[in-house]
From TrEMBL:
Its main location: membrane. Keywords: Coated pit, Endocytosis, Membrane, Protein transport, Transport. Residues 508-557 are annotated as: Disordered. Gene3D superfamilies: 2.60.40.1230, Leucine-rich Repeat Variant, TATA-Binding Protein. The keyword Nucleus does not apply. GO terms for biological process: clathrin-dependent endocytosis; intracellular protein transport. This is AP-2 complex subunit alpha-2. Residues 619-732 form the Clathrin adaptor alpha/beta/gamma-adaptin appendage Ig-like subdomain domain. GO terms for cellular component: AP-2 adaptor complex. It is found in: Membrane, Coated pit.
Length: 851
């Protein structure tokens, strides 16, 4: 081996002998080290390719590393490499599959995409692929899509790729989100159904605490990278048309804005960086949607607060975001940016002042910029001169003011005024093609206005970069303008380039929408409306209307005559109309007991009766895991659940919405007699005191032992202002939560369907549609219920065919489902088959309520 002109070349040796795998790996590693030292390697490539066929991880790893670094896409060895990659992709060893995928992602040649690219979507969407391989497959597919999009058609895989957003593994979701975002930019209509899934996943992340996503929490911020990717993905589409999806997205954005106001959980800069990254991307989405005036105002106020932040990078990014949004901001806040220590922040502040200048504030902004120009940094002085001159000319309404500005500009920075054209052209290469076209038109008009720079402009128009520009529009303009300036006489040139009439003034579209949507604070006559006194609703925990009759037991605490605490009295429900008198036969004893105080005051809820509205809220959880189970004026109860086969972890969050403590707080889970042997519950005790505005959590670890039909009953009791409040709610732990979607082909489905032909194994229901028969909504409900959607099984494309496996400790039960909508009659026919009749009936009863 000798070195010639920096190249390492092979020198044949007389002692040739066969090398074993370890020696090959060792020498290939040495070649990699030599390459890192800066030398070109012209031998040893075949030895690296031979390492790919080894079954040892370390040897195969070094071989793939060498190929990724040193073997180009045009190498003669690429066919051998592709064959080795193909062999590893079809192997059952996930480590070998990952190594092959990493090599493909690094090389990313068209030849690889052509020969092996078709296998990657199968790996990505297969139910048998482990999570780590799915992650690598998603990123590899993203790399190949960027380099050779035409080589890998994904039409047949679109639906499955989109549904990876529902995957339980956060790493797979992160990889899939990056892939989907790239695909959406090329074909947004094909991937439009990803919006609802992205909103659903974002909602789960935003509402989660950092303890729920420990493996994907970065300095107390749950999954910040995935949150940013999801927010960017949603910016490719208009606001969701589905009201429920739009409401959920609005709630997510409001939650992100609310979290920005919370005190930081850590003083480290990594925490604030992750938190602010999500916040800024959420504000970008709010600007993009431009549909909710309340969100726009809150986002604007949030950016205004950041202008006072001590972190330099945050202020700099904040100026850029305000400039992009073109939001109105108090001028004193922007002027303060010119005193920043960091010159880049001062540059952003000047750019923002320039962008926000209009006729109403032009004199103020131009005067401030002239004042700052005297002490401005030399790196931004030239650009400031140009911007002041443009603003003065654009918004001049008084010639005296305009002359004063120009004279002051010459006095302060006279050395730079003569170089305005050179300064303008210095930014030409940074502009987009459309902007360059406008600049070329500006240059040709400069010839008419400033003949002294005609030669300089003709040199620019005649340069090779412009005359041979790949953009046809720019090339044509340069040729025509150059000929016009050369051939035409001054008179003809003056006529052709005569100044165009001014365009009518237009208001910012964002400001116009804000003014249109923001509710006014004054009446039509200009007089301010008198605010109505705010009435605090009666403290009912059963969702009854405030005007509903109140039981005598609820009004036994009367206030003294001189009590001025009207709000407190109203909270106890004493300000409402008196309840009608009950029949004497049934109320006499109750009245005496209440008067003498022998029993504690309650909210009138029976020990076993469900709280009003509990059943409706319970049904909303049939197709989702997280959300608000109950809410009234006092208490909010949220649910966050995780299910894995026959195990479940259900977190119940109790939020005190008042400013007073809840005492004697208890929460007990009661199983029905039919469920005691089917469910195993391990509850975690809850704190007996819940402070005002605080939230406490109670965890239930649940195991499904056998099939069941009755959901557990959550009994909650606490004291508030001397009253015992009771709630009886159904905990949304139902048999369908332990379903796992199953994939199968048409032959396997019909074989199993025919095997379950006994009458008792089938449950069939024909019912009227309760909701609009929207195909996409039905699809999302089926997936949320825990079922798969099998494509190509039913000849009618409107029908849904699904399968799943029910996991219990005792056994696993296969379930087959067929849902047939009749849109003309607004009817459904639902058929469920399983080996256990009680499971078919239970699933049928649950699914019937969702369509």
């Amino acid at each position: 081996m000798i070195c010639l002109h920096g190249h390492i070349v092979f020198s044949p040796s007389t002692g040739d002998k066969t090398l074993d795998g370890y020696q090959k790996k060792k020498y290939v590693c040495k070649l990699l080290f030599i390459f890192l030292l800066g030398h070109d390697i012209d031998f040893g490539h075949m030895e690296a390719v031979n390492l790919l066929s080894s079954n040892k991880y370390t040897e195969k790893q070094i071989g793939y590393l060498f190929i990724s670094v040193l073997v180009g896409a045009s190498s003669d060895l690429m066919k051998l490499v592709i064959q080795s990659i193909k062999n590893d992709l079809v192997s059952r060893n996930p480590i070998h599959i990952n190594l092959a995928l990493h090599c493909m992602a690094n090389v990313g040649s068209k030849e690889m995409a052509d020969y092996v690219g078709g296998d990657i979507p199968k790996l990505l969407t297969s139910g048998e692929t482990i999570d780590s391989v799915k992650q690598s497959a998603g990123l590899t597919l993203l790399r190949l899509q960027r380099s050779s999009p035409e080589m890998i058609p994904l039409g047949e895989w679109t639906s499955r790729i989109i549904h990876l957003l529902n995957d339980q593994h956060m790493g797979v979701v992160t990889s899939a989100t990056s892939l989907i975002e790239a695909l959406v930019r090329k074909n947004p209509d094909e991937y439009k159904s990803c919006v609802s899934l992205a909103v659903s996943r974002l909602s789960r992340i935003v509402t989660a605490s950092y303890t729920d996503l420990q493996d994907y929490t970065y300095y107390f911020v749950p999954a910040p990278w995935l949150s940013v990717k999801l927010l960017r993905l949603l910016q490719n589409y208009p606001p969701p048309e589905d009201p429920s999806v739009r409401t959920r997205l609005t709630e997510c954005l409001e939650t992100i804005l609310n979290k920005a106001q919370e005190p930081p959980k850590s003083k480290k800069v990594q925490h604030s960086n992750a938190k602010n990254a999500v916040l800024f991307e959420a504000i970008n989405l709010i600007i993009h949607m431009d549909s909710d005036p309340n969100l726009l105002v809150r986002a604007c106020n949030q950016l205004g607060q950041f202008l006072q932040h001590k972190e330099t990078n945050l202020r700099s990014h904040n100026y850029a975001l305000i400039s992009d949004a073109m939001w109105p901001m108090e001028s004193w806040r922007l002027f303060k940016g010119q005193t920043e220590r960091d010159v880049s922040v001062r540059q952003r502040a000047v750019d923002l002042l320039y962008a926000m200048c209009d006729r109403s504030n032009a004199e103020e902004i131009v005067g401030e910029m002239l004042e700052y120009l005297e002490s401005a940094d030399y790196s931004i002085r030239e650009e400031m001169v140009l911007k002041v001159a443009i603003l003065a000319e654009k918004y001049a309404v008084d010639y005296t003011w305009y002359v004063d500005v120009i004279l002051n500009l010459i006095r302060i920075a006279g050395d730079y005024v003569s170089e305005e054209f050179q300064l303008l052209h210095s930014k030409y290469h940074l502009c987009s093609p459309n902007t360059r076209g406008l600049l070329l038109s500006t240059y040709i008009k400069f010839i008419n206005l400033f003949p002294e720079i005609k030669t300089s402009i003709q040199e620019i128009l005649g340069s090779d970069n412009n005359l041979r520009n790949p953009d046809v529009e720019l090339q044509q303009r340069c040729i025509e303008y150059l000929q016009l300036s050369t051939v035409a006489s001054p008179d003809v040139l003056a006529t052709v380039l005569e100044e165009m009439p001014p365009f009518p003034e237009r208001e910012s579209s964002i400001l116009a929408k804000l003014k249109k949507k923001k509710p006014t604070a004054t009446a039509e006559g200009g007089e301010e409306k008198e605010k109505e006194p705010r009435t605090i609703p009666q403290a009912q925990v059963n969702n009854a209307e405030p005007s509903a009759p109140v039981p005598l037991q609820a009004v036994n605490n009367t206030a003294p005559a001189g009590n001025a605490g009207g709000a407190a009295i109203d909270l106890l429900g004493l300000d409402t109309a008196p309840a009608p008198a009950a029949p004497a036969a049934s109320s006499g004893l109750g009245f005496l007991v209440d008067v003498f105080g022998d029993q504690p005051a309650t909210n009138g809820v029976d020990d076993d009766a469900l709280t009003a509205g509990a059943e409706e809220n319970f049904k909303k959880f049939f197709c989702k895991q997280n959300g608000v189970l109950f809410e009234n004026d006092l208490l909010q109860i949220g649910i966050k659940a995780e299910y894995r086969q026959n195990l479940a972890r259900v977190g119940v969050f109790f939020g005190n919405k008042t400013t007073f403590q809840f005492t004697n707080f208890t929460s007990n889970l009661v199983l029905a007699d039919s469920s005691k042997s089917a469910l195993s519950v391990q509850p975690k005790a809850v704190d007996p005191v819940v402070d005002g505005g605080a939230q406490v959590q109670q965890l239930f670890n649940i195991e499904c032992i056998d099939s069941f039909s009755d959901a557990p009953l959550l009994k909650i009791s606490f004291s508030y202002s001397g009253q015992v409040q009771k709630l009886n709610l159904k905990l949304p732990v139902i048999i369908s939560k332990f379903l796992e979607p199953a994939e199968m082909n048409s032959e396997a489905f019909f074989t199993r369907w025919k095997a379950l032909s006994q009458p008792e194994q089938e449950c069939q229901k024909i019912f009227k549609a309760q909701f609009p028969q929207d195909t996409e909504q039905v699809k999302q409900k089926v997936l949320g219920f825990g079922l798969s959607i099998l494509q190509g099984i039913d000849p009618n494309p409107d029908n849904f065919v699904s399968s799943a496996i029910l996991h219990t400790r005792n056994q696993q039960v296969g379930c087959l489902v067929r849902l047939e909508p009749n849109k003309q009659m607004q009817m459904y026919r639902l058929t469920i088959r399983s080996t256990k009749p009680e499971i078919s009936k239970a699933l049928g009863d649950l699914l019937e309520t969702q369509f």
